[in-house]
Write a sequence for this structure.
């Protein structure tokens, strides 16, 4: 925790920590809106800023509250500017919700130390694949004309990434984006719209669980939500104005941060 007395019982952080968390929430909202992965910024900030005697579920619940509203604002901007296809979106969202539910239920039985190295290899592969295919995702060119083909592939993507979000989580939005681009042939910008709404679904599912158990620091979560909404609004406007090329660059930067984090976690767990 950052040094200093806490502000109040209902806002158990110091003034310095609150400033850090508000800035982190704004930056996370921007990143999340463009390509996903804002949790890589916001969650570590919460771990640093909140007192150590606050239970982990409260940190996770507060993070989900802020992220949910930021993703909601970004989704609204995208939906007003970019057309989505229900034949893709409906099965994607249904699969994401089901996968997230199953993943969350199994998360207590699967050690993170087993999953982290596997995810690290997957993220490195995705980054290299994107880097060496510079034209991938720059044009919106759907590969499948059959509605059934689109629907079952979208459902499978939702189920797979939703399961990952429930069982581990970091970089969920980025995985949604790359699979929609790589499997369905969507442009990065169009993929981001669908990824936002799918990620909104997984956030809502998790938020419901934390909310039912009262595991949210409400005042802090709402304050961070305001900044997350602001960052998300700005990020979504920038993405829709600048197009898929801009989203691709942010995507690669976000993957680089994710690789560093997962590599650090992997080294730490084996060193320990």
């Amino acid at each position: 925790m950052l040094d200093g007395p806490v502000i109040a019982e209902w806002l158990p952080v110091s003034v310095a920590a609150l400033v850090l968390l508000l800035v982190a929430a704004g930056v996370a909202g921007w990143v999340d809106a463009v390509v996903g992965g804002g949790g890589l910024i916001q969650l570590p900030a919460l771990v640093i800023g909140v007192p150590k005697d606050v239970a982990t579920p409260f940190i996770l619940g507060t993070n989900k509250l802020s992220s949910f509203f930021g993703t909601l604002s970004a989704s609204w901007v995208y939906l007003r500017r970019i057309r989505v296809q229900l034949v893709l979106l409906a099965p994607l969202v249904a699969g994401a919700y089901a996968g997230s539910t199953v993943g969350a239920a199994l998360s207590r039985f699967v050690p993170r130390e087993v999953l982290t190295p596997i995810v690290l290899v997957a993220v490195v592969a995705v980054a290299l694949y994107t880097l060496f295919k510079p034209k991938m995702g720059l044009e919106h060119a759907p590969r499948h004309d059959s509605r059934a083909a689109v629907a079952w592939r979208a459902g499978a993507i939702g189920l797979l990434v939703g399961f990952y979000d429930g069982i581990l989580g970091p970089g969920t939005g980025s995985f949604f984006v790359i699979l929609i681009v790589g499997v369905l042939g969507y442009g990065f910008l169009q993929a981001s719209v669908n990824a936002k709404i799918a990620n909104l679904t997984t956030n809502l599912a998790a938020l419901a669980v934390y909310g039912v158990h009262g595991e949210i620091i409400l005042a802090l979560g709402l304050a961070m939500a305001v900044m997350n909404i602001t960052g998300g609004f700005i990020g979504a406007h920038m993405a829709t104005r600048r197009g898929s090329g801009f989203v691709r660059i942010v995507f690669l930067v976000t993957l680089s941060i994710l690789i560093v984090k997962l590599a650090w976690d992997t080294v730490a767990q084996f060193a320990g």
User: Anything to note?
Assistant: The chain is about 75% helix and 0% strand. The longest helix spans residues 244-271.
